[in-house]
Amino acid sequence: MTTRLLLVDDHAVVRQGLKMFLKAESDFEVVGEAANGLQAIEMVRQLKPDVVLMDLLMPTMGGVEAIGIIRREMPETEVIALTSVLEDSSVIGAIKAGAIGYLLKDTDGPELLRAIRAAADGQVQLSPKAAARLMREVRAPESPEKLTERETEVLRLIAQGLANKEIANTLSIGEKTVKTHVSNIFSKLGVVSRTQAALYAANIGLVTLSHD
Predict the structure, then answer these.
(1) Residue spans of the chain under pLDDT 70
(2) Cα dist. 139→92, 96, 125 in Å?
(3) Which of 5, 70, 113, 144 has a CA between 20 and 30 Å from the CA of residue 19?
């Protein structure tokens, strides 16, 4: 199955480089490019890509604001934030806005491909260092609606980095049922991404986020 990608960066040369690199992968198709957050939102509405690679610092509208709107309007589309610096508060903003993950722009090729494939599968990938930092900053509501036992099981598996198909196999339920559980978890916890849900699970001690 082909993963449809939208590239968002205000530097044409960065988009061009990414496009050339991703072209070599038979399971990826770059369906569009945007130079700022506003263009990105329009293009996601039109093209409905599976994954957006989103630069954070751009003119007109930055990545963080765009991620928030995309995730609210089109939750089927996952967003990976691309940034030059890990210390940037906009990285935390991106995760709060609903990015499933983030990468530094100096990430090597295989790692970028792995991150895109994981995002397409809805897998949470956070390095322990990033997770520790984010747990301090990204807070789920103090007293969210209570999750059912099955929802808690699904949340634990999300936080362990499993994709919907793997969760379905583990719990011997349909993938559609998993999707319903995930959307119930999101609305009960007041979160908009699997990464936020995973951080909440770690905060309440349901899991230890330790995968690189």
Answers:
(1) 86-88, 127-129, 138-143, 209-212
(2) 11, 9, 18
(3) 70
**And the tokens for 59?**
């003119």
What is the domain-level CATH number for residue 155?
1.10.10.10
CATH number where 39 lies? 3.40.50.2300
Place of tokens 């994954």: 51
How far apart CA 157 and CA 41 sit, in angstroms, is 30
DSSP 1: -
Q: For residue 156, what are its two tokens?
A: 């634990």
In the chain, the number of structural domains is: 2
What are the strands, taking DSSP E only, across the chain?
A: 3-8, 28-34, 51-55, 78-83, 101-104
Same domain, 164 and 81: no
Spatial CB neighbours of 109, under 8 Å, sequence gap ≥ 6: 21
Question: Which residues, 6+ apart, have CB-to-CB distance to 50 below 8 Å?
Answer: 3, 4, 5, 76, 77, 78, 120
48 and 108 housed in the same domain: yes
pLDDT digits (tens, 9 = 90+) for 53-96: 999 989 999 999 999 999 999 999 999 998 877 665 777 888 88
pTM confidence score? 0.85
